[in-house]
């Protein structure tokens, strides 16, 4: 069985979607670990409900990014993690994790990259009054939302849509697309 570690910082809606896909038999993997960098983030409670091992790291207590990522890497190795899945994890990944998990760290972003990278992609799309935005699943590299694109899906923005409407549309697509893309990667891995 493929072991996943999900890194998240917030509400955990994509965490939920991935676990539900596993429960429904649509994703052949095991969520072995939740890594969270915010004490009290709602995703922690979700992980507890699903009985997923959880570690909460406060980056400020470490002597730099490399030391913080060494601690994350140790937990991932202890649990034999095959893939790291970023689900609203609001930190750039450094070489300490990138090298051992090359092409095995996956992120989901609420825009059609390369448009609107970084924070508040939905707000950026709404303020620019674009008609099409979307969702991108990509591998992580050392840039911000610059890694190779795995898949994308478009979302239309109507003139009457508020930012909250767009967010709901984006999340609905994310919750379907992310588990499917992860499963397709695992199938390709199995075929090797």
From TrEMBL:
Its EC number is 2.1.2.2. Catalyzes the transfer of a formyl group from 10-formyltetrahydrofolate to 5-phospho-ribosyl-glycinamide (GAR), producing 5-phospho-ribosyl-N-formylglycinamide (FGAR) and tetrahydrofolate. It catalyses: N(1)-(5-phospho-beta-D-ribosyl)glycinamide + (6R)-10-formyltetrahydrofolate = N(2)-formyl-N(1)-(5-phospho-beta-D-ribosyl)glycinamide + (6S)-5,6,7,8-tetrahydrofolate + H(+). Residues 3-182 form the Formyl transferase N-terminal domain. Keywords: Purine biosynthesis, Transferase. Pathway: Purine metabolism; IMP biosynthesis via de novo pathway; N(2)-formyl-N(1)-(5-phospho-D-ribosyl)glycinamide from N(1)-(5-phospho-D-ribosyl)glycinamide (10-formyl THF route): step 1/1. The record marks 145 as: Raises pKa of active site His. The active site is at 109 (proton donor). (6R)-10-formyltetrahydrofolate binds at residues 65, 90-93, 107. It is an enzyme of class 2 (transferase). N(1)-(5-phospho-beta-D-ribosyl)glycinamide binds at residues 12-14. GO terms for molecular function: phosphoribosylglycinamide formyltransferase activity. PANTHER family: PHOSPHORIBOSYLGLYCINAMIDE FORMYLTRANSFERASE. It comes from Halobacillus salinarum. This is Phosphoribosylglycinamide formyltransferase.
């Amino acid at each position: 069985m493929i072991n996943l570690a999900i890194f998240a910082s917030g509400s955990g809606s994509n965490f939920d979607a991935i676990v539900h896909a596993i429960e429904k038999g649509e994703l052949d993997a095991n969520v072995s670990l939740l890594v969270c960098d915010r004490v009290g983030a709602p995703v922690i409670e979700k992980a507890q409900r699903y009985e997923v091992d959880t570690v909460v790291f406060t980056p400020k207590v470490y002597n730099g990014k490399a030391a913080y990522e060494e601690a994350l890497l140790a937990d991932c190795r202890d649990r034999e993690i095959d893939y790291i899945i970023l689900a609203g994890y609001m930190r750039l990944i450094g070489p300490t994790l990138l090298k051992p998990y090359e092409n095995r760290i996956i992120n989901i972003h609420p825009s059609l990259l390369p448009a609107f990278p970084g924070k508040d992609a939905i707000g950026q799309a709404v303020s620019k009054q674009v008609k099409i935005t979307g969702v991108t699943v990509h591998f992580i590299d050392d840039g911000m939302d610059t890694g190779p694109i795995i898949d994308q899906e478009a979302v239309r923005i109507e003139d009457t849509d508020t930012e909250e409407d767009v967010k709901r549309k984006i999340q609905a697509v994310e919750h379907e697309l992310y588990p499917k893309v992860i499963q397709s990667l695992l199938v390709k891995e199995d075929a090797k």
